[in-house]
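Practice record 12: protein with protoporphyrin IX containing FE.
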Amino acid sequence: MSKMYHPSTPLPSRVREGHFGEAILPPAGVQPGPVYVYDAAIRLWHWVTFLAIIVLCVTGYFIGSPLPSVGGEAHEHYLFGWIRFTHFAAGMILGVAFVLRLYRVLVGGKHARQIFWIPFWSLGWWKEIFEEVRWYLIIGKPKEYVGHNPLAHFAMFFMFVLPMLVLLFTGFALYAEGAGVHTGWYTWFGWVFSVLGDSMTVRTWHHAAMWVVILFSMVHMYMAIREDMTHRQTTISAMISGWRFYR
Ligand code: HEM
Ligand code: HEM
C-alpha cells in the first residue's frame, strides 16, 4: 500500500493520480479517502518562507525608501541598523530554508519535486493550463488535482522558484559587498557582480524580483482561499496537516 493513503482507507475509496496530477475520484456514491500530499518538511518550509518574505518585504521597503532622518545620535537608536540587521537575519533564514528544501527535492516524493521542474514540452500540460485559466476566469469548470494544478505549478516555477533564486543570489551578493571583498562571502557570491554588473544593477534585479514574488503571493493567497471554498477538495488545510480531503 502506498504511504500516500491512510491505512484505513479501503481500496475502492482511494483517490488516484493521473498523468498531470489530476485526481481520479472513486465512482459517485463512494466517499473518497484522504491523500497525504505535503510532508512535514515542505509544510514547515512553506510557513517559514511565508514569514521570512513578509519580514524581508517590509524591511526591504525601508532599505530601498529610507525614512527621513530620526532625531538624536544614530548610534543610540540604531534604527536603520536594526532594519538592515532584521533584513539580513530573515534573508539568512530564507536561504538556509531554501537549501534544505532543495535537499527534499532529492529525497522527497514527486510532490516535493513538483515546483522545481515543469513538463515544458508536453502539449497536454499546456492544454491543462489553458483549462485552468478558463476556470480561474470562472468561465470553465473546476477540476481536482492531488498536487498543484498545472497553472499553479507554472506560476510556482516561473514566479516563485526563479525569482527566489535571483533574490537569494543578488541578496547574498549585496551582503558580500557590504562585508568586504576580502571576506568568504565575497568569494562565494562576488561572481554575481561579474554576471549582472555593478552594485546598482544587482540592487535593481533584487528589487524587481521582489515585485514578481509579491505579485505571485497576492494571487496565490487569493486562489488558495478561493479554491478551498469552490472545490470538492481541501486546499489550505493540506498545507497545514499534509492531508488532502475530498468531499
Ligand atoms: C509570501 C507568501 C507565500 C508564498 C511565497 C507562498 C509560496 C508557496 C509555494 C512555493 C507553494 C508550493 C509548495 C511546494 O510545492 O513546495 C505553496 C503552496 C501552498 N500555499 Fe503558499 N505561499 C504564501 C502564502 C500562503 C498563504 C498565506 C496561504 C494560505 C492562505 C498559502 C497556502 C498555500 C497552499 C494551500 C498551498 C498548496 C496549494 C495546493 O494544494 O496546490 N500560502 N505556497
Ligand atoms: C524575499 C526575499 C527578499 C526581498 C523581498 C528583499 C527585498 C529587498 C529590497 C526591496 C531591498 C532594497 C533594494 C533597493 O535599494 O531598492 C533589499 C536590499 C538588500 N537586501 Fe534584500 N530582499 C530579499 C532577500 C534577501 C536575502 C536572502 C539577502 C541576503 C542576506 C538580502 C540582502 C540584502 C542586502 C544586503 C540589501 C542591501 C542593503 C543595503 O544596501 O543597506 N535580501 N532587499
